[in-house]
Amino acid sequence: MSGLLDRIVAERAAQADRGERNFLSVLLNASESTEAMKKLLTPDYVSALTYEHLLAGSVTMSFTLSSLVYLVAMHPEVEEKLLREIDAYGPKDVVPSSEELQTKFPYVEQVLKETMRFFTASPLVAREASEDVEVGGYFLPKGTWIWLAPGVLAKDPEDFPDPDVFRPERFDPDSEECKRRHPYAFIPFGIGPRACIGQKFAMQQLKLVVIHLYRHFIFRHSPRMEFPLQFQYSILVNFKYGVKVQIIERTN
User: Fold this and answer.
1) In the chain, what are the domain boundaries?
2) Which residues are annotated as a binding site?
3) Which regions in the chain score pLDDT beneath 70?
4) How much is the pTM?
5) pLDDT of 180
6) Is there a contact between 120 and 63 (Cβ–Cβ < 8 Å)?
7) Which of 134, 196, 211, 222 is most solvent-facing, going by the fewest CB within 10 Å?
8) Which positions make up the binding site for heme?
């Protein structure tokens, strides 16, 4: 995959007319705008950003949506509250604006965050120490690679009481649990300047898909689905055999 993207980036960079305005074209045009941008947006960096954008737009999205459908089907009280908020917005054919996605669907966001806490798509986040530092009594010299496990942080009972319970309300910003939680306890998109560049877009896209799906359907576990679910691990986590559900059309 990395070699393929390197070749695509090189071919696109060699084109005088890059045609439509897409993510890669914008990056390449920006890299040629000034000397400073040329030094920042090197071919390797552009390939890395493109790879990250591709992953964020496909594998992580499908994993999160599959996880949400699976978990909501297990919790009828969550489904009822989710449907009530979605139905209260208005007619099924009205598409929420970006601003409305931010303000009109707080419970949809809580369900998404709790889903990403429960089943975290990115198993590891790597960082290199830019200077000598001491963390938790351990001395880490400059250049040390540090691996963070967001899924482990998200199951710490100190920040998430009853971590094996699916409870979206724990992400209600007015709840005491949310107020006292460490700001870095939940980092599904990474953290700092190397965090996922598409996280805001991803949340908007996830909200839209969830709203559209639950306006028209509800989901139930299929008898053919294995239990417990099995996972496969690589750069991202995925379900080994997928999530098998029955789709039921909503008639009201």
Assistant:
1) 58-120+154-214
2) 196
3) 1-2, 5, 16-21, 52-57
4) 0.80
5) 96
6) no
7) 134
8) 196
